[in-house]
Amino acid sequence: MQSNVRVEEVCVSIREKLNGPSPSQSKCCIFRVHGELRNVNKTAYEPKIIAIGPYHRSTITLQATNKYKLHYFQLLLEQKKEITVEKYVDAMRLLEEDTRKCYGEPIGVNENELVEMMNENELVEMMVLDGCFIIELIRKFVDSSLRDEHDPIFPMDWIVNSLQRDLMLFENQLPFFVLRKLFYMIDAKPDDSRFINLALDFFRDLLPVHRKSIEGSSPKNAKHLLGLIHSYWLPSFAGNVTSEKFAANNKNCQSIHCATELREAGIQFVKNEECSLFDIKFENGVIHMLPLIIEDRTETLFRNLIAYEQYGKDEDFKYYVTNYVEFLDNLIDSSNDVGILCRRKIIENWLGDDEVVSNIFNKITDAVTRTNNDFHYAEIFAKVNIHCNKRRNRWIAKLRRNYLNSPWGIISIAAGFILLLLTFTQTFFTVVPKWALD
Question: Record's PANTHER family (predicted)?
């Protein structure tokens, strides 16, 4: 009898789990980065000064900036007296259940230990304070007239730079529908386009391209701020390449030589400021690329966008950022390759040390997975390899490498050619009789 009771208890437990949401039905869009990916560079996924959302809220070193959230919320209440604390709380309480479902791990998981789950009131409070802080920060960033004379953030550029970095981290997000709701409550002229434009303007300095080169699409169905950046910053070929074409182009096209060897094979690098960062072209022995700015936050941005692609479920994007950094990883094997790309204005190295940039791209794809049928630059790789494998190009490459790699080599070849020409002329006049020339 006791055995039957235990069996029934197990069956009940299994049925309860089966009645829960299936993976395909899950609304999860904010995850902790898995261990293998995180361990390559842990700091790239962790906030430096502020915690947004539940994953890092218990980190002691981030507690100091909670006063910024309270300060901005207090100013908001004073400026918009018609919206009380109760109204913000009521609005977020209606979204609490959907918000909880957006996180891939139980809310309240600490890096070192399992702590008590956030209850409804704690989660709603977090949504109000974190969400209002983000909305006010973005609005004040774009419109300086909204800033208080005692603003604790904008007088110091380093804080703004750190906030731009922290607010795009994959683990440091609030669902986009929470931010949208709060924006509609706070802003005088609320609509989706205005909110999206304000948010994108806040992150423009973070993108590793010149401002004039930023031309994105109109994001749709963004899940959070990092997803907004990804949706906006798509290449022109997004959605236009079928998996069948990928499969056809990917055979034996998974790698190319580094920049040094490609240059020796006669391939040139030319900057192209009329395209997006991901729209790389190869024509007539020339690789055209948009200049890439490398600064302190660039690796963190790329790593978090890659992590977002690793966890993404949508069919409207497929590893665009991952493929781009894989392309650069192929081009860059050493500091010499970085130096070549810098001289050709393909890379602007604001870090100063070419070896540091080389190390970034040699490790950035470690522990990153993708299928072999979704590499967007397979066709370019194929064309580059065909160019390098042509016998004429190999001869020219060997000539350049062995004889034309220094001024003295060029002088020696020129001198040899002149000597050969003089010898031929002397032989000609010796062999041919004088009367035959008259």
Answer: BNAC04G53230D PROTEIN, PTHR31170:SF17
Range(s) of the domain holding residue 422: 408-437
pLDDT tens-digit series, residues 188-231 = 888 889 999 999 999 999 999 887 666 666 676 899 999 999 98
Contacts 24+ apart (CB under 8 A), 383-392: 383/282, 384/256, 384/257, 384/262, 384/267, 384/282, 384/287, 385/252, 385/253, 385/256, 387/265, 387/266, 387/267, 387/285, 388/256, 388/257, 388/261, 388/262, 388/265, 388/267
What is the distance between the alpha carbons of residues 361 and 370, in angstroms, rounded to a whole number?
Answer: 17
Domain count, the chain: 3
Q: Which of 202, 218, 234 finishes a domain? A: 202
Q: What pLDDT sits at residue 419?
A: 72
- What is d(CA 134, CA 140) in angstroms, rounded to the nearest whole number? 10
Residue 296, both tokens: 């302190």
Q: Of 210, 230, 366, 235, give the one whose Cα is nearest residue 295.
A: 210
Average pLDDT over residues 240-266: 70
Cβ of 303: how many Cβ atoms within 10 Å? 27
Q: 67-78: string of b/e by CB count within 10 Å (b at 16+)? A: ebbebbbebbee
Q: Confirm whether 86 is domain-assigned.
A: yes
Query: Do residues 158 and 188 share a domain?
Result: yes
Percent of the residues in the chain that have a pLDDT greater than 90, as a whole number: 60
Residue 338 maps to a domain: yes
Judgement on whether residues 192 and 315 belong to the same structural domain of the protein: no
Rounded Cα distance, 16 and 8, in Å: 12
Query: Does 97 share its domain with 175?
Result: yes
Per-residue DSSP letter, 60 = G
Domain assignment of residue 156, yes or no? yes
